[in-house]
Write a sequence for this structure.
């Protein structure tokens, strides 16, 4: 589907990026993300995603600040027509789903991704990982977390493989982002 | 004879190359795009950006009406 003129105008600078282009922008516009819950990390993530053209469906809808009401609708114009076939996954404190690439973003200090698309989304692996890295996150940690979550989701929507050196999970500790390994569930003991 | 033509004489940066980039993406590998452009900025930046994206500059010439004609061959990295 070709970009509409207002989309070319809105996302022109992003289209210039080599990794994006017109076809990449179309992918971003057709890879809706559902985000559940509210936190500073969520606000950052949905702001970055929506600004880049990813339709974002928030549950609950943004209720205050710059993400609320008409401002949010204007900022996130392509979410209005979205009827996303989201999978039903176990609740997490903060998660975003991008299907069929099966990316989940966990909350409270952890970002998690699945390495093997053949296995698909596994909420148990996510929960196990969250339980192992959970810790108090400062507001600045949440800004980092939200930005990173948005970046991971955008790269997967673009079909860009993440660098093999990118670890499965990240931990935010004392304001620094450090890598950790994800914790597989009992069904995937050798990894995801 | 180009496979497609685009006129960006009425555009300003960064939309000048955005239009060219989208036009090149829409063409098959090896197809030729003729670009009509005007002004110092696109004359400098559009050929450079096209080359950086892997496309080939076949010709660039000034025309009598003050515009320029740029001819590009599309090359797609994925192809």
């Amino acid at each position: 589907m070709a970009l509409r003129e207002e989309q070319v105008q809105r996302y022109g600078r992003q289209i210039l990026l080599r990794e994006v282009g017109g076809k990449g922008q179309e992918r971003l516009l057709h890879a809706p993300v559902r985000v559940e819950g509210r936190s500073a990390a969520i606000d950052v993530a949905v702001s970055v995603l929506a600004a880049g053209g990813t339709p974002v469906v928030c549950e609950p809808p943004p209720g205050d600040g710059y993400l609320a009401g008409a401002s949010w609708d204007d900022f996130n114009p392509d979410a209005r027509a979205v009827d996303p076939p989201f999978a039903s996954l176990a609740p997490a404190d903060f998660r975003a789903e991008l299907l069929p690439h099966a990316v989940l973003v966990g909350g409270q200090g952890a970002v998690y991704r699945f390495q093997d698309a053949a296995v698909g989304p596994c909420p148990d692996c996510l929960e196990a990982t969250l339980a192992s890295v959970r810790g108090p996150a400062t507001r600045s940690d949440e800004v980092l977390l939200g930005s990173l979550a948005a970046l991971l989701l955008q790269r997967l929507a673009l079909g860009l493989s993440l660098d093999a050196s990118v670890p499965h999970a990240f931990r935010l500790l004392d304001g620094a982002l450090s890598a950790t390994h994800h914790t597989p569930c009992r069904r995937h003991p050798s990894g995801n | 004879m180009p496979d497609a033509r685009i006129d960006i004489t009425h555009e300003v940066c960064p939309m000048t190359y955005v239009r060219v980039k989208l036009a090149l993406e829409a063409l098959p590998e090896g197809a030729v795009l003729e670009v009509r452009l005007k002004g110092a900025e696109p004359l400098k930046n559009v050929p450079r950006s096209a080359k950086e994206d892997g496309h080939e500059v076949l010709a660039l010439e000034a025309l009598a009406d003050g515009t320029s004609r740029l001819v590009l061959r599309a090359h797609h990295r994925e192809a």
